[in-house]
Predict the structure.
Amino acid sequence: MNNAQEKFGAPKGRAAKKVLPYMQEWIQDFIRRAPFLVMASSNGNGDCDASPKGGQPGFVKVISDKQLLIPDVHGNKLFQSYENFETNPKVGLLFMIPGQEVTARVNGTVEELNAEQLAARGIELNIFNPDDEARLLQGLLISVEESYPQCPRALSFSKLWDTEQIADNQAQPLDTWLLPDEQS
């Protein structure tokens, strides 16, 4: 039992049995339908990063119940995840489907595969709507160490998919994402 469980109590019922060392068929199907995930990583010092990844449903390939392949697409060139993987191959993935309050979580390790390595394995990755700014760099092969569904409480409490909340948010656009020197 870990310190948090000693302090607050151990999981009970279904929660105690939901974390598995492979992906159940339900998790695999969820990932095939998910157009969005957040990939969390940290370096050897524990400095963290969470990177959004998106595409058409099926952009993440389910190779087996123990492996996933994520297309790594050219983005903002900050490369925090790459730097993290150099000293710590551990990764946490959170998959979401709009309108669904349940999420799928996968934890494991990453292996970076270049174009030649992907071709040698007979794997073709696609990018939805590629352009000069969105092109495939490589594939990220995830070896699954654990997976589980996450209960809907957080998404339910946040009203993330509530259409009235979405309309209210759209009526009040945020310009704060622009850097001060980019604002006119």
Observations:
- The chain has one domain: 13-158.
- Strands lie at 36-42, 48-54, 61-64, 67-73, 90-96, 103-113, 136-150.
